[in-house]
Design brief:
Blueprint lengths: L3 H9 L5 E3 L2 E4 L9 E4 L3
Antiparallel strand pairs: 1-2, 2-3
Length: about 40
């Protein structure tokens, strides 16, 4: 993800997220059955 902060702001308007050391996570229950992890591009 090129801009993790922008992505997180947009996503958190719709579903809760969990913070991890390299990014954030959306649980499967909140993402139509598919858990998603977002990490900033290097």
């Amino acid at each position: 993800m090129a801009d993790l902060a922008k992505a997180r702001k947009l996503i958190e308007e719709h579903v809760p997220t969990t913070t991890h050391d390299r990014g954030f996570f959306v649980h499967a229950e909140d993402a139509f059955g598919a858990a998603v992890f977002f990490e900033e591009a290097r």
